[in-house]
Amino acid sequence: MLMRTDPFREFDRITRELTAPGTWSRPTAMPMDACREGDTYVVSFDLPGVDPEAIEIDIERNMLTVKAERGPAGNAEHVRMEVAERPLGVFSRQLVLADTLDTEQVRADYDAGVLTLRIPIAERAKRRRVKVGQGESHRQITG
Asked: Which of 5, 27, 36, 37 makes the best surface tag, with the fewest CB within 10 Å?
């Protein structure tokens, strides 16, 4: 048996009861980072211990939704938890994507408990040079 020597054990128990695990109707938020690398936005979500098959990524119009579920380890009917500090349940995060992003080309990778999405900037939104002509010449946009 594992012994806890934390003097705030009762506070921990009360906090866990008040912040119950997320459910599909009321999921818990997951931590994330977002940055831009050249012409791609990179969004990383911390999902340690989540089976990749339990991760759902949906894009509807410009709304990106990530949902994941982490259940208890092992066979629950034969396991008696002594210490349960890792969060369980459903985790979710929604992001509103700009119209300038190419939602058809989103890539998702899951490695070492981190889900990484790569969202490229749409070609139509990339910087272009406008050629200026003189007199009867016309202006032409080039990529």
From this structure: 5
